[in-house]
From TrEMBL:
One of its GO terms (molecular function) is cobalt ion transmembrane transporter activity. Belongs to the CbiM family. Forms an energy-coupling factor (ECF) transporter complex composed of an ATP-binding protein (A component, CbiO), a transmembrane protein (T component, CbiQ) and 2 possible substrate-capture proteins (S components, CbiM and CbiN) of unknown stoichimetry. It comes from Cutibacterium granulosum DSM 20700. It is a multi-pass membrane protein. The chain crosses the membrane at residues 15-32, 44-64, 84-101, 108-127, 187-205. It comes from the Bacteria. PANTHER family: COBALT TRANSPORT PROTEIN CBIM, PTHR43627. GO terms for cellular component: ATP-binding cassette (ABC) transporter complex. One of its GO terms (biological process) is cobalamin biosynthetic process. It is found in: Cell inner membrane; Cell membrane. This is Cobalt transport protein CbiM. Keywords: Cell membrane, Cobalamin biosynthesis, Cobalt, Cobalt transport, Ion transport, Membrane, Transmembrane, Transmembrane helix, Transport.
Length: 234
């Protein structure tokens, strides 16, 4: 869903940069706080960024000037909250534009807004809603990953609709057409990403359980279990 270089007009690029900038600055401040106050989470922070980089680099041709791919931003949103992903996502998009010719620098603001801002917030909202409704953890993770992906492609479709409005139906009609084309590849990708997210968090639960508990992703161990563990070690 990265919009390629030269697809948007300079004015539109400027608007998306301006809209995204406050979220990215907020995210940068949150990353600095996280590293300063919780240095033990640096590896998880790097994992969230790397996961997003790898998944979003897997692109399939789709709408002219864009592509379909997983995003991976839901994982970081669950671990560190959405503001952090605005900054990490922008860094990922810069590297992909410069190293992989995936996306662009002129369209960085638009791509950041769709993938690193809207996607994480939507995914996190579904994650928290599922938790509030006492849904299973696997469902919460699945929805966080899938809806972060799905909402990103919805925003990209609107951005392209604004850039290339339909002569009869305007921006809405153009966005609907882009949505229909994207859906062919993006819906299966979003579902697959949801299941991949479940596997990722099961792995993290095995290798970084203490950090996940501090972050509130894993529930604290019952007191009896902790006492039993101490007795067994003694």
């Amino acid at each position: 869903m990265h919009i390629a270089e030269g697809i948007l007009s300079p004015a539109q690029c400027g608007v998306w940069y301006a809209v995204s900038a406050p979220f990215v600055v907020w995210g940068a401040v949150e990353v600095v706080k996280e590293v300063k106050h919780h240095p033990e989470n640096r590896l998880l922070l790097a994992t969230a960024g790397a996961f997003t980089f790898v998944l979003s680099a897997i692109k399939l041709p789709s709408v002219s000037g864009s592509s379909s791919h997983p995003t991976g931003t839901g994982a970081g949103a669950v671990l560190f909250r959405p503001p952090v992903m605005a900054f990490l996502g922008m860094i990922v998009l810069i590297f992909q534009a410069l190293l992989l010719a995936h996306g662009g620098i002129s369209t960085l603001g638009a791509n950041t807004f769709s993938m690193a801002i809207v996607g994480p917030w939507v995914g996190y909202a579904f994650y928290k809603l599922t938790k509030v409704c006492h849904g299973p953890d696997a469902l919460a993770i699945f929805l966080a990953m899938a809806t972060a992906d799905f909402s990103t492609y919805c925003v990209t479709s609107v951005q392209l609709g604004i850039a290339f409005p339909d002569q009869q139906s305007g921006v809405g009609g153009a966005a609907a057409k882009f949505l229909g084309i994207f859906a062919t590849t993006q819906v299966p990708l979003a579902i697959a990403e949801g299941f991949l997210g479940i596997l990722l968090f099961r792995f993290l639960a095995n290798v970084a359980a203490p950090q996940l508990r501090k972050l509130g992703v894993l529930a604290d161990e019952p007191a009896e279990s902790a006492d039993a563990a101490e007795v067994s070690h003694a």
